[in-house]
Design brief:
There is one protein chain. The chain has 237 residues and is an alpha/beta fold. The protein has 2 domains: 60 residues, Hypothetical PUA domain-like, domain 1 (Ribosomal Protein L25, Chain P); 166 residues, SPOUT methyltransferase, trefoil knot domain (Alpha/beta knot), CATH 3.40.1280.10. Helices cover 30% and strands 24% of the residues. The protein has 7 helices and 13 strands. Strands 7, 8, 9, 10, 11, 12 and 13 form a 7-stranded parallel beta sheet that branches. Helix 3 links the parallel strand 8 and strand 9. Helix 2 runs parallel beside helix 3 and helix 2 packs parallel to helix 7. It is elongated. 35% of the residues are buried. The structure holds S-adenosylmethionine. The site of S-adenosylmethionine (SAM) has 19 residues, from loops.
Length: 237
């Protein structure tokens, strides 16, 4: 299996990049005429046949590895390279979109190279976990900008306080739809120092429901993974 950008599909052919030719030829040791699966990043898998620097698309394959809901994860950027792990694990768990956010207590202000790195990690993790869709990694935005991602179910994870558990709040109707954009969940997790009171109040004003992930205080890197796991458990059909 290999991820192919939609722009590389042209009139029944796939124009392979040098890296993809290397991967197919040297790493997977495919020869002229051998077949492989091309994932187009838009939710579809295609059976393709290697033909020199190109591949011929033979047929569409039916696979369903995506969740029946669209999940946007807003993560206040953790210190160091912690976000790499968030992107990798949450992609494996089925996230649709990840928005790195700069909160009042965020310590990291990332460069553009970081964004490219996160997008590469998402593509690799999507391929590894046999997803048919590579999650979108948005450019970092301030927390207040992120709050305007209006949705039907919006949650903000708050480590301290008496809030209902996320698992008791999720309202999934239990049916699979082909349009993963139909039922949408947005969930926000905070930085090492937690959210400020003002941020929690702003989120509530935007319709976010404060939720708990349990009685233990999770690291900023662990919390998004736990939130995604709970959503996956509630929504997978
Ligand atoms: N020092 C912070 C505090 O006392 O609030 C703890 C922050 S925690 C390391 C980082 C983030 O993970 C929190 O802002 C929250 O979004 C999430 N988190 C961690 N444990 C949680 C829990 N038990 N319930 C809900 N959210 C949690």
């Amino acid at each position: 299996r290999i991820a192919i950008a939609p722009s590389q599909f042209q009139q029944g052919q796939i124009l392979l990049t040098k890296e993809q030719q290397h991967y197919l030829g040297r790493v997977l040791r495919l020869r002229e005429g051998d077949r492989f699966i091309a994932m187009d990043g838009k939710g579809k898998w295609w059976l393709a046949q290697l033909a020199g620097e190109q591949a011929q698309v033979l047929e569409a394959l039916l696979v369903e590895t995506e969740l029946p809901v669209s999940i946007t994860l807003m993560v206040a950027l953790p210190k160091g390279n912690g976000f790499d792990e968030v992107v990798r694990c949450c992609t494996e768990l089925g996230v649709t979109c990840i928005a790195p956010v700069l909160s009042d207590r965020t310590l990291l202000h990332p460069s553009l190279q970081k964004l490219e790195r996160w997008r590469r990690i998402a593509a690799e993790a999507a391929e590894q976990s046999e997803r048919s869709f590579v999650p979108t990694i948005l450019e970092p935005v301030t927390f207040n900008t992120g709050l305007s991602f209006a949705n039907s179910q919006q949650y903000i994870c708050v480590a301290r306080g008496e809030f209902p558990h996320l698992k008791d709040c999720l309202q999934h109707k239990g049916q699979r739809t082909n349009d993963i954009g139909q039922e949408r969940i947005v969930i926000a997790t905070g930085p090492e120092g937690g959210w400020t009171t003002q941020e929690i109040e702003n989120a509530i004003a935007f319709g976010f429901q404060p939720v708990s992930l349990g009685r233990r205080i999770l690291r900023a890197v662990t919390a998004p993974v736990v939130a995604l796991s709970l959503i996956t458990a509630a929504c997978e059909v």
